[in-house]
Amino acid sequence: MKKIILLLIFPLIGIAQINKVENKNGFKTYMFGDSPDKYKNLMLEIDDNNTKLYSLPEDNIHLEGVDFEYIRITFLKNKLSTIALRTKNATGLNLYNELKKSYGEPTKINYSNKVYEWILSGMRVIYEKSSTNKDAVISFYAGAN
């Protein structure tokens, strides 16, 4: 009987995680180390030999209550190494709250510059609040320093 209950609970736990930022080795479906071939709708912005910067349509990432002005991903030697996002429509705080739900309290905080940082196993996340509006730039970096 216990096994049956566990088998019923595990899918529910997975469903509850779908809207979260989740991934601790990237952001949503973008995983560090992946090649550009894994993704569709990439628009090349910069090609500097081993480093390529792509932009993505803003609707490639869905997170309830958060709108994106841009989504950019950088590949170093054909491996995803950086994810950069900018919120719009004053939804920066919503993304900050999602980051806190997924990763806990920031590891480092610089209140004067409005910068919050999470150092996790396998990645670093930096949230920089805009000084002029209620949006933010969020950067995900492969590896934690």
Kindly list the characteristics that best describe this protein.
single chain, 145 residues, alpha+beta, Protein Transport Mog1p, Chain A, eight-stranded antiparallel beta sheet, two-stranded antiparallel sheet, 2 helices, 41% strand, disordered N terminus
Describe this structure in words.
- The protein is an alpha+beta fold and about 140 residues long.
- The chain is built from two helices and ten strands, in the order αββββββαββββ.
- The strands form two sheets. It has an eight-stranded antiparallel β-sheet, with helices on one face. Strands 1-2 form a two-stranded antiparallel ribbon.
- Strand 9 (about 125-130) and strand 10 (about 135-140) form a beta hairpin.
**Assigned CATH class:** Alpha Beta
Shape: globular
The low-pLDDT segments are 1-22
* Fraction of residues in helix: 10-25%
Helix and strand layout, with pairings?
Layout: H1 2-17, E1 26-27, E2 30-31, E3 43-48, E4 51-56, E5 67-76, E6 79-88, H2 92-103, E7 108-110, E8 115-120, E9 123-129, E10 136-142
Antiparallel strand pairs: 1-2, 3-4, 4-5, 5-6, 6-10, 7-8, 8-9, 9-10
Q: Can I get a quick summary?
A:
This protein is an alpha+beta fold and about 140 residues long.
